Amino acid sequence: MITSVKIERLRGIKEGELNNLTPLTILVGGNGSGKSTVLEALLIGASNQPEDALGRAINRRIGTPLSFRALFWKLGRDGDASIVVQTDAPASNARVTNILYPEDDSYSVNMNLRLDPPNFSATVEGLRVNFEQVKPPYYVQSYKVGSRYIHHLDGVSRLRLVDPQKMSYASLPEMYSFMRTLGQDVNDNFQALVKEILPDVKEIAMLDFKGSDLHLIYKEYSVPVSVAGDGVYATIRQALELVTQSRGVVLLEEPEVHLHYRLLYTSSKLIWAAIKRGIQIVLTTHSLEFIDALLEARPDDADVNALSIVRTNLVEGSLLTRRYSGEETLLARREIQDDLR
User: Which structural domain range is residue 124 located in?
Assistant: First the structure.
């Protein structure tokens, strides 16, 4: 489990850190308070595929002028970006990631990524990354990926960022097909969830071998999930993302987007079920109703302090935080309401 992250010169954060992360960490704060940047720091700094994570972080803000330079505090004028991620594992429990600002002043997407340990660098060109070992060679305790070695953080077997308004790692049919390979119990749980969202639905399935779309199957007709409504689509996608993962870390960007209040509770139950399976979740939200739903959906056997809230604020680049334990959250609901709708 990730326990802390330290950030320097990444996007709008000149410096800051979050400590004592819990199985469910909820980031709250006003717009521009650094919440999304914290998620991106965790994505890049803890991913077992840092080159992919870096490309995804760039693509999330692809509409921003000089999107790749926008990764850096003051567009890189003050130096490289640095991320330090710490876990609770007894060994291989920390990684330093330095994103090196391009030396030239070109407008192409070229930048370097250096990991320690091991000392490897990567050059991103057009969101593609080629690894080159830094000389001299260092002793590396690592996991082999293809023909290259990338140090994996113990306790972070898999890490994904789920953003309802951005790109996904896979299409719904692809995630559904993978889910079916995990066994009947997983499929039954997923089907039960769909019926909870839409009681009149008999099941959800692909109706052709091309796998072009998932369909909600009713008694006399079917409807593609892609046209069933934003809230239904977002909840089903979130369900597939969570049920197809065991252990690891999931980062959720404003999962309440498009969701009716009833679906907020369903989404909250999904999150607690994932935590019970050993998944750590860090999410951002602007919704007080969603926090209420998370508190209400907490199983009786779940420790209330498995949940924590971190209130973020940016002051001249410094990330200021105030942490609330689960017990404090129950008492401090009125205070955080200032940042939420």
Answer: 2-158+285-339
